[in-house]
Design brief:
Layout: H1 2-31, H2 33-37, H3 43-52, E1 60-62, E2 68-74, H4 76-84, E3 88-93, E4 96-98, E5 101-105, E6 108-113, E7 123-138, E8 141-151, E9 156-163, E10 166-178, E11 186-188, E12 191-201, H5 205-213, E13 223-232
Antiparallel strand pairs: 1-6, 2-5, 2-13, 3-7, 4-5, 6-7, 7-8, 8-9, 9-10, 10-12, 11-12, 12-13
């Protein structure tokens, strides 16, 4: 999938950027005339250089996700917008719509979490939800957004789009994520929980939905809801 390749490049790029940033200080110091005249055997300089080159360590790293789910508590504004557009929400595959929340089972992926401020973004990886999705229906037309792939490193959710059972777009950029409201990582037994990210309609999905349903009411940035991602740590 296109999103998988993009995510892998993103993680490699982040690692490279982190390395450059950590080495920039020592290299700049070595290039100055005053530092060049300082004794090379200075213990304090050696210690400082060693500490500066120590990469940040993640607070959690899961190479292969094996279960749990992504839950999106639907925003009232989004629900009201669907009502005004006479769109009926539903689910496909293994997804559920219960108590005002969409629930998508996690089927694979990986995730690495750092302390906020250590690296940016501090949550990287991908969270896959194959075989489930969201449907929107009106006037004999049904759009399904399925096989969602969350890429927190670029704050995007990709997925496949079908219209009345026919593929329209694969690996489309469907939702954008605003992690500014993300809460610190929580752990409960063998579970890790990331809660608080806003899920919004992307500037790609909005015109697609508008064209399909003959409206202009779906705006980019429309808040869909607040996400909670729960993953197994073992």
């Amino acid at each position: 999938m296109r999103s998988t390749t993009f995510s892998t490049r993103t993680r490699r790029g982040l690692a490279a950027l982190a390395t450059v940033g950590l080495l920039a200080g020592p290299l700049a110091a070595c290039s100055s005339d005053s530092e060049a005249a300082a004794p090379a055997s200075s213990s304090s300089a050696s210690s400082s250089s060693s500490e500066a080159q120590t990469p940040p360590q993640p607070v959690a790293a899961i190479d292969a996700l094996t279960g749990q789910d992504t839950k999106i508590a639907l925003d009232k504004g989004f629900v009201d917008a669907l009502t005004q557009l006479k769109l009926t929400p539903g689910v496909t595959g293994d997804a559920k719509l219960t108590d005002g929340s969409l629930v998508f089972p996690i089927t694979g992926g990986n995730v690495t979490v750092f302390e906020p401020g250590q690296v940016s973004p501090y949550v990287i990886g991908q969270v896959q939800h194959e075989g489930s999705g969201l449907s929107l229906s009106a006037g004999g037309t049904t759009v399904e957004l399925t096989n969602l792939n969350v890429d927190p490193g670029v704050s995007r959710v990709y997925g496949d789009v079908t219209v009345n059972g026919e593929f329209a777009v694969t690996s489309a950029y469907l939702f954008k994520l605003d992690g500014s409201t993300l809460k610190p990582l929580q752990t409960q037994g063998n579970k890790a929980i990331l809660q608080g990210t806003e899920v919004q309609i992307s500037d790609v999905a909005a015109p697609l939905l508008n064209d399909t349903f003959g409206t202009d009411a779906v705006k980019p940035g429309l808040l869909v809801g607040i996400a909670t991602i729960t993953v197994n740590t073992k």
